[in-house]
Amino acid sequence: MSDAKQDLVDASLLSSSHLTPIDHKSHPLSSWPSIKPNPIGRLSLLNPSITVAAARECIQVGKSFPIDWPVYQSGTCLFERPCGQHEIKRRGYGDDEKQQTDENGTPWVVCYDEILTINTQASSQWDYFLHFSYPGSGVFYGGIKDQDILNRKTGDFCVAALAKAGGIQTRGILIDIPLYLEQNNLPSNPPLLNPASNPVDLPLLLRAVEHFHLQPRPGDVLLVRTGFEDVYREDSEKAQVDRHRESAIQGRWYGVEGKEEVVKWIWETGFVAVGSDNPTFESWPVWENAVWMHPTLLSGMGIPIGEILRLNEVASECHRQNRWSFYFSSVPLQIENGIASPPNAVAIF
Hints:
Layout: H1 2-6, H2 48-58, E1 64-66, E2 85-92, E3 110-117, E4 125-127, H3 146-150, H4 160-164, E5 168-176, H5 177-183, H6 202-211, E6 221-225, H7 228-241, H8 260-269, E7 273-276, H9 293-300, E8 305-307, H10 312-321, E9 325-330, E10 340-341, E11 345-348
Parallel strand pairs: 5-6, 6-7, 7-8
Antiparallel strand pairs: 1-11, 2-3, 4-8, 4-10, 5-9, 9-11
């Protein structure tokens, strides 16, 4: 069965021979120019057969779980990004004191509009390929430059492209790091510890994949739970009570290790997107000599990165059913020239 599903994708597109050398001066480990850049990047691997196969395999009981947090967070906002603002505007005939009918007996009608102001990266998000350039060269996916983004001259290359393609409709797989460590009697990884007690490197990822009886295949979305959600939720709740309180989250947490073998595994497996409950997917900060996952995945390979995802409920359902795959549906916002978007995602079992 898995071999047949593997054949749904052109295997030649999974070869790491497409990637530039790791010592490339401008854009190391990038799939371009070998593979022509596409506004939807690695999502171009998806096709109707993959979507149908995912739905048939994964939708068994009809339960669905949201993967987003609120778009306008009222608690902790990271990287000094402003929390969103939600303004409700009252509309109708006349002012607040007007009677229920006017002088002609016409019923008074009230309606409401709203204005939502958000930073698309202040809460759950997809990072698109215009978010994070290669350090040094300042190059984005396909050779897009800084001024192209500022001047809105990226053409079809924007987060709206993901929405116009119908979003991401495929299979998702979840690797639950805290549960894996617990079930194998290994030291736990406190979410805000970096370096981690047990680094999430390729050997650990592969052992966890085997432990959860997963068979990753091209077209999958890879989600990694670190336990950050517990810290984030507690911090946000306390911040709502005391606005002057200093956040316990000080820009340090563990995640997937930035190593060449990890990004090549992501590429060769054919993952079309990756994500985590933490704010960066990768361990943060990025240590010296590590491979930066952000520029490599986004600007190099065209692989969207999901961050601050709501994974605890999904993990609990996976544990309850003893299966760690599900149908993954995400339709980002159609933001022309957009850098990022709320995922607007659900996991369906």
